Structures are given as C-alpha cells and as structure tokens.
Amino acid sequence: MSYFSDNDTMLWLDEFMALKRFNIPIASNLDDAIYERVVIFSAIDEEYNACIKLEQDEQIHNRDKN
Asked: 14-59: per-residue pLDDT in tens?
C-alpha cells in the first residue's frame, strides 16, 4: 500500500498543487491561516522542492555523463 493512497492525503496534494499553480494564498494573511493547513502545506512544499531539486541534479548528472 502506498503512503499517498489515502484520500485525505490526495485531497491535500490536489489543493496544494492548485494553490501553487494558480498562485492563490492559503489565507488573506498568516494570522488568519489555519495552522493545520500551514503545517501540511509546508511539509508538502518541502517534499515538492526536494523532488524538483533531485530531478534537476539528475538532469545535470546525465548531461555531464554524455
């Protein structure tokens, strides 16, 4: 069973990606943001950025091999 097979997790990921793609804030200001959303979106953002960096590093490594 995959970690991301949980419906709630998929909803969080979908919401995060929609907000990121369309540059929509999670609240009008940080004080009004729901703490749980901030924590979850921060974790997703860290993992997302780590995946992007890994992909870029692999592309550089593969380019240097050729």
From this structure: 999 999 999 999 999 999 999 999 999 999 999 999 999 999 999 9
Residue 23: other Cβ atoms inside 10 A: 6
Rounded to an integer, what distance in angstroms lies between the CA atom of residue 28 and that of residue 24? 10
DSSP one-letter code for 36: H
What pLDDT does residue 1 have?
Answer: 46
Contacts with 12 (C-beta within 8 Å, 6 or more apart), sequence order = 40, 41, 44
* Contact indicator for 27, 33 with CB cutoff of 8 Å: yes
Report CA dihedral (48, 50, 56, 58) to the nearest 10 degrees: -120
Total Cβ atoms within 10 A of residue 16: 19
| Distance (Å, whole) CA 48 – CA 12 | 13
